[in-house]
Amino acid sequence: MRHLSFIRTKPRLATKMVIALSLIILVSSTITGYLSYSAHLDIAEKEISKQFAQKVEQVSSRIDAKINEVYRFSDTIIFHPTVTDVLSKSNEFKLIEYENLMNFNDILNNLKLNLDYVYSIEMTDRFRKRYKPTHSTEFQELNQSTYDKIAEALSKTDGEMVWQRETYHTMSREYDVIVAARKIKNEKMDVIGQLLLVFDSRQFVDVFDDVLANEDDIVNLYTPRGNLLYSNQDKSFLTSTDRSEKGNNVRTEMYDGERYLLATNDSGISNFRFESAMSLQGLHNKSQTIFHVSLLSGLVSLAIAILLIAFASYRLLGPLKTVVSGMKSIKEGKLDTRIKVKSNDELAYLGNSFNEMIDFIQSLIKNVYQTQLDQREAELTALQAQLNPHFLYNTLDMLRSKLYLQDDFENADLVVALSQMLRYAIEPASTTTTIKDELHQINNYLTIQKSRFEEELHINMDVDDEVYDCSIVRLLLQPIVENVFVHGFRDQVDENKIHIKAYKQQSFLMIEVQDNGCGMNQAAIEQIYQRRSRGEKTNGIGMANVIRRIALMYDDPHRLEIESEEGKGTLVRLILPIEMEWNDRGERDAS
């Protein structure tokens, strides 16, 4: 007997293994790094978007509160009786008492002190005569162009406030102000003048600090008319004044090759629009670090893997080469070849398995003649099994003839029905038949059942002539009818009724089987529907198998429907396609 020993030689597969596994590690590291980078960036952007939207909503609420404060402040002025009295007399060129005028001045000065960010309060009558409290004289008057723009804007309003931003330079300082103006009306809703409030714009800017995390971040504030009231930077993609979409809107925008997170919020009361954009470049740079670390770790792992693979392949592929040599010897017909095992590891198992395989092959060769004899005997057994159904048919025919000779026609008919049922059922269930043949099979089954129930079973069949030749899968109705007697009539002995109806409805073949049995609840119906979807096994070809066969043989919307109520019977409805059997010309008709 030839013996082959494990000899350590330089494996030829080592280089291929090193290259293949190195590529796997490199590609895996690259994919892992990229997926980690993408996942981290996606999660971070979603979290930042959520926080950014909340901050923008909070800032918008503060702006809303600030605007409402201005409205309340203006309401206090324009609805004050002294103010309306002074403006009414001014419009009528009446003399305003000194005491009344001083009272008017004190009221405006006190109101101005209530809001420290108010620079000036100014009112004009219909003839543009200006009234200004003494505490407002420290702020210079507005430019005539500003008055003209405000007057034009107020002419298009009916009492709401208009807003304007202006910048003024003096010898001592620069004023960046916001001007708010609205009409003043008397009790008869006649316009008697207008009110101008000049505010320090920094009072509005301070509320933006929560969203200005970086110097590249942008904020814009638009008035209800779409005019830009404040902007800390000039970014063209934020100048949209489209007010068709209300509420919060968070999205990403590209500007000058840089990605921004843009949030928009329309305040619910003042109808101001606040827009803010935050640069995502820093987040992208930090996320790329994850990708670079993954690539670096992959390269380090690759270098280590090359060394380990080279060493392992040298130790392991040598014994494998011995196994390959043994297989070549077996291929040449040298069945006495055996591998000599010198280790006690997985390779030893491989060598022992090789030797056992050769022993098994030799055993198979010795037993091949006995196998041929067993195969011939199996063929004879199979032939005998094919003859058994014919033997059963012949026996039933002989029994039927004997019953006819004895004038026992009722039992003879039962034997005929049973024989026909057996012949029909022995065919494959997946083959098709006609409604006529399927109903004939049902009649055979009902004939046998009628001998059991006698006069207590009432059968009614209502079948349209046009559906007799329609094609149907074999043995689709019998399990439904059989289910009536197994379950529906199990505790019922009197007045058992079953009604079978077949008809066309539009492009569907409708078959209904209705009984007056015990019925079932909705839970039992759902259990029948779901039994197949849960993969449960069922005996024979019951209701669950009928549902499954319909699903396999026909497309939607063809199905089986069950309508039932406990104590009131059950209606099972088959909704199938209308398909006709082959006609005399060898063509198949279909509707």
Automatic annotation (TrEMBL):
Listed Pfam families: HAMP, HATPase_c, His_kinase
Membrane topology of the entry: Multi-pass membrane protein
GO terms assigned for molecular function: ATP binding; phosphorelay sensor kinase activity
Entries under InterPro entries matching the protein: Bact_2-comp_sensor_kinase, HAMP_dom, HATPase_C_sf, HATPase_dom, His_kinase_dom, Sig_transdc_His_kin_internal
Domain HAMP: 314-366
Keyword annotations from UniProtKB, A to Z: ATP-binding, Cell membrane, Kinase, Membrane, Nucleotide-binding, Phosphoprotein, Transferase, Transmembrane, Transmembrane helix, Two-component regulatory system
Reactions mediated catalytically: ATP + protein L-histidine = ADP + protein N-phospho-L-histidine
Ranges where the Histidine kinase domain occurs: 477-580
EC number(s) given by UniProt: 2.7.13.3
Localization (cell): Cell membrane
TM segment ranges: 290-312
Domain of life assignment: Bacteria
CDD domains xrefs: HAMP
Keyword Nucleotidyltransferase: no
A Gene Ontology term for the protein's cellular component: plasma membrane
This protein's name: histidine kinase
Organism for this UniProt entry: Aquibacillus koreensis
